[in-house]
Amino acid sequence: MALVVQKYGGSSVADASCIKRVAQRIVATKKAGNDVVVIVSAMGDTTDELLDLAEQVSPLPPGRELDMLLTSGERISMALLAMAIANLGHEARSFTGSQAGVITDSTHGKARIIDVTPSRIREAIDQGHIAIVAGFQGVSQDTKDITTLGRGGSDTTAVALAAALEADVCEIYSDVDGIFTADPRIVPAARKIPRISYDEMMEMAACGAKILHLRCVEYARRFDLPIHVRSSFGTREGTWVVSDPYTEGTEMEQPIISGVAHDRSEAKITVVGVPDKVGEAASIFKTLADAGINIDMIVQNVSAAATGRTDISFTLPTADSSTALTALKRIQGEIAYESLLFDDQIGKVSLIGAGMRSHPGVTATFFAALADAGVNIEMISTSEIRISVIVEQDGVDAAVAAAHRAFDLDADQVEAVVYGGSGR
Amino acid sequence: MALVVQKYGGSSVADASCIKRVAQRIVATKKAGNDVVVIVSAMGDTTDELLDLAEQVSPLPPGRELDMLLTSGERISMALLAMAIANLGHEARSFTGSQAGVITDSTHGKARIIDVTPSRIREAIDQGHIAIVAGFQGVSQDTKDITTLGRGGSDTTAVALAAALEADVCEIYSDVDGIFTADPRIVPAARKIPRISYDEMMEMAACGAKILHLRCVEYARRFDLPIHVRSSFGTREGTWVVSDPYTEGTEMEQPIISGVAHDRSEAKITVVGVPDKVGEAASIFKTLADAGINIDMIVQNVSAAATGRTDISFTLPTADSSTALTALKRIQGEIAYESLLFDDQIGKVSLIGAGMRSHPGVTATFFAALADAGVNIEMISTSEIRISVIVEQDGVDAAVAAAHRAFDLDADQVEAVVYGGSGR
Questions:
Q1: Considering only CB atoms, which chain B residues are within 8 Å of A86?
Q2: What is the pTM of this model?
Q3: For an interface test with A, which of B20, B21, B43, B57 has the most A Cβ atoms less than 10 Å from its Cβ?
């Protein structure tokens, strides 16, 4: 008998009939002899509707109250799901994040999980019940206030609870069949990846693949918890995210490249004519950090000897652009840079693959493919298992397709039909 | 500095603009130098919408999960209200029933409050914050599960918290100006009652006046807590419900009759031809009690000597009729009664007034007024401060108007404009 943790996103519980279908899947898992713990997101657009209500009442609602408001979303879906399961003749008990022992810090809106003490969940399982837990939410250790975990929060709840309960697997359900070698909307020949390592999955998540959130994969890696990403609209195997995907009974040799990810949500800012003195770059990035902005890639040109000045370019989430530009304007007097350039018509294309460590020439092949496709490279960043380039946004599709083909990722047959977000 | 507890019903927080108006009223109370604790119901039709969702998922949802679902309603309204107050520059903190220390038994759907331990509320007040508390909900002492208090639950939360906090007053806001001598829709000359005793208010509530629920008045009487029933759509004084309304600085002599209440929600069942033996009536009412039915009035005719049989009539909530009839059919063999009669076209008209104790002839005046109005009396029931009669439903309006006039309750000018339910 295994302990299976399942997480269903908002699209899987969008309405009453979706909830009933999910209930049947849960009961089938239970009937197959497993203990089942289910983490559920808010129904469909509930969160957006609640945010809309908040906006009607206050332009800048306090984080504590916004969390109190938003957590009602999972309360509704989890209670309905428990009812639907009861209707099929099985005992289900729903628990809020607080009741499930999800203990967090006090950072409302993006709290971090500090500890998970799932005694009530364990008790429910021991009594033969199916436990339904609200995703995305917890309770602050210090203030006992309700908190939310931010983007991808329900996935993180699922993995954290699965780790605390020492579950055998954490299944993440959405409307997508698994992790693909590229977005099938761009590359129709993209293939579903049967197994992928935590490291590669983290790079994929960080580079724009939206199926799993980075935090949840980090958490799973720390506890060596297998994640199975699959669709709630079918029964096919999805993608397994594990520590070492190529030694556990699979015959395949490790591929050089696991997949091609892309991201259109970033913008580029260039600080032009920064005096080439020690500490100037540091104060630019300190200013941005103080403004709470996460920088992605950074490029600094060699200083032009004649002028003693240099240009610094970096990418950041487009949504943070105006905050960043305002913060940089404020220090123009202090730093004495010449001007700011802003470009939100960019895209990032990333090759991810643990196999590239042992294969020289990956960069050359990648860049040649982009050149053949007529795509110009604006910025480059690399890690052990990833190469990312910034290109103009109109070139993203061509770049992804060219890279996919160059590394022999194209399937013989088109396999995927849907590819989209995974809710929260 | 006083401690004021305010309760706002669903119609007072129906949408964003209502919530903002309520926030202004709360802040005004705070600015006037009071500590303020607010109990809030779910917005407008939220509860009905949630019930509708539950019905789509399951015909008979478990009580525990239904309570989990319904309590999300107050969570939404209280968070929004706290945001609206923050927007006006005051600190507000929202608390669930559980966080506010509302401890109940485990009867889901109609839990009774066992204890109130409002340490977090007191802490919030001590810090100068406005505390917003979810009405209608608590947490079970034994199972730690979320419970709801049933009909009139938010009023009960308000009074229970006010008592535990030793508040100076509990203000119950709705869309009605206060308690009236009769329903102004039936008697346009009805007057707002400035002060009324707990006992009279309990009889009024039990006899169909929907402004305050019986449980909440019982609770207030036990703790001698003044209730002020008023409208959230104006600033006029409403009705004070207190222990002794006629000695505290009012010049008025105690009126004979405080008001005329009516109720169209009951039906009458007659068990015809019950053998006139010891214990037959007892087993009829035991059967009904076992079926969970609350009986209101009972009349038994004197046994007809010739037949040795008698008829027993009683009234009950119309909604419980089919359950009651089914239960009675089941024992027909055992009791050997002849038949059942059912009539849901009845109404109850009640005179309430602590003054009738010292005024003989009230019954005579009441019955004469009904006779003059051409209304036939079917059943009669009395208490120290109340006389109720069952009449045919079409005669209710005429009976109420005639009684109101006979006891000089008509105002010189029409005062009331709205009269309706008070939410939950």
A1: 58, 61-62, 65
A2: 0.83
A3: B57
